[in-house]
Amino acid sequence: MVKFLKGVPFFSKVEGSSLEVLCQDLVVEYYEKGDCIIKKDTVGDAMFIIKAGLVKVHDANHQYSNLGPNDCFGEYALIDNEPRSASVTALEECELYKLESKRFVKLIGNDFGFIKGVLSVLIKRHRELDVIQENLAMSKSELERTNAKMSGLINGAMDIIIMFDGNYRILLANPAALKVLENTDVIQRNVLFFFNEPSATILEDLISSNKKGESKGINTMIPSKLKIIGSEGTETTTEGTISNTGSDAHRFYTLILRNLERRLENEKKISELTNQTKYLESEISELTNTYGIVAEDRTMKKVLGAIQQVAITDATVLIQGETGTGKELVARAIHEASHRNEKPLIRINCGAIPANLIESELFGHEKGAFTGATVSRKGRFLLADKGTIFLDEIGELPLELQPKLLRVIQEGEFDPLGSSATIKVDVRIIAATHRDLLKKSKEGNFREDLYYRLNVFPIAVPPLRKRGNDVILIANKMLEHFGKKLGKTISLLEDNAVESFKSYNWPGNVRELQNLIERAVIVSKNGKIDWKLIIPQSNNQSVETTLTDATEVILTSDELVALERENISKALKKCNWRVSGPNGAALLLNIPPTTLSSKIKAFGITRPI
């Protein structure tokens, strides 16, 4: 028995003779499995030495440690009368030696060797405790520094970081996560409540697989995007990773997610800018010159003054004028002088697009909206958002589509084809026509309410024949332009040519002048042009003959248009509807084929079936 006590740390420094005396004061006690040896909060009166068996030190269900043979417990009961801080219960059959406190006090008083041995053990244990405390203090300080670094990393991260346990209860959420969750009180809440149903299912499947042992651990990219729904209802699309730490009994999961909303918004903006770039590139490729509006005549200066007046506003503008007078140049000038000039000017010719496609061109469509709609498409109005849209030949807009345009003007919104989502836009509208829209509205071919909405600020562009000397200025500008373009040095108009230019009626206006000048530069020799061969002569003669036969009746612009339309129709019939070539109507009318094609489209001339 003395040999056994020598192996007990508490008595390891006590001499054998003193241990023989101690043996006389020890009481043997036996306990069955589950017996309570010491109960927490009770005052102890003895210490115990384990001879055989196993016990646990615990507080309710929380277990501190297990003790076996040669271990002792309850030592503080020998020197104080304080309640015990933990319970001790037998885990199996146990044989214990019990030393009561009154017998311990008696031994100390009577046996100097006993007290000396016990004090040696206590002093050694105290020194060991000092070292342990010092190491703990150093570890605590290092832990605090490490924790501060980790907290700084987690709290400063722009990514969303959420840690939760196996029951999906949130244990940690960094500031970025709290912002997206729209809640500062998320600890111990179910993390799945903050995800939509498909996203919550993805997380549950990953974690269930991990719990079932289908995977030893999780440290992977989440296969699909996750959608977070904040406490205030804001939806945020994210992507990221999930990982786990800890044992099977105490497993923790960490979500690191990246907010995709800004990336998706940037991708959308890039897509819109790409579409705008493609559109603008196609627009630039259509331009045949870089000259602007040339005006010295008072009628055109009046137009320039109107441009300056209306450009600084967001008022809707209706530009009226004959075909080829430069209505698009006026629209561009208004846009460039406006506060929207950093945004695009989007142009669409309402008369050049088939009626069954123009709605999609203007307002866009969703995939599958109609046969052939294999992809979604943004309409011109969406491309023009914050900018200006120029609706050329507005008089050709189908009647059934006009209410939708009226809604955009009044409400600033529209629904793409095949979509129930309403899109809001901020667009300045400029329309142009060579038609008498008021007359068309009275005839029921154009909505009267739309006409008045468009006609907020009308600008009438005068025909070239009423602009006096402007025709000479524009012609000289064009000569310089096409001369440089074709690598030729061309002389400016001389006096004899000036008279020919001024006397010609220019039914095709500036567009006809442009085509004529380009052709003249192409056929020029040594910088000289024979304008008698270039400027049509039949135009004046035919008009003069018509006016004479009409007993000098003054024709209105609409009557002149009707007269020209009839003349073109006769030429087409005579040439069997051939436009260009040796036997074409363009040669018969002595105008370029491109000019004739524009007039056919503008006048709505169609070949009879």
From TrEMBL:
Coiled coil: 257-290
Keyword ATP-binding included in the entry's annotation: yes
Domain Cyclic nucleotide-binding: 10-109
Keywords: ATP-binding, Coiled coil, DNA-binding, Nucleotide-binding, Transcription, Transcription regulation
Organism, as annotated: Croceivirga thetidis
SMART domains: AAA, cNMP
Protein name: Sigma 54-interacting transcriptional regulator
Residue intervals of the Sigma-54 factor interaction domain: 293-522
One Pfam family named in its UniProt record: Sigma54_activat
PANTHER family linked: PTS-DEPENDENT DIHYDROXYACETONE KINASE OPERON REGULATORY PROTEIN-RELATED, TRANSCRIPTIONAL REGULATORY PROTEIN
Signal peptide: none
SUPFAM superfamilies assigned to the protein according to its UniProt record, in alphabetical order: cAMP-binding domain-like, P-loop containing nucleoside triphosphate hydrolases, PYP-like sensor domain (PAS domain)
InterPro entries linked to this entry: AAA+_ATPase, AAA_lid_NorR, cNMP-bd_CS, cNMP-bd_dom, cNMP-bd_dom_sf, HTH_Fis, P-loop_NTPase, PAS
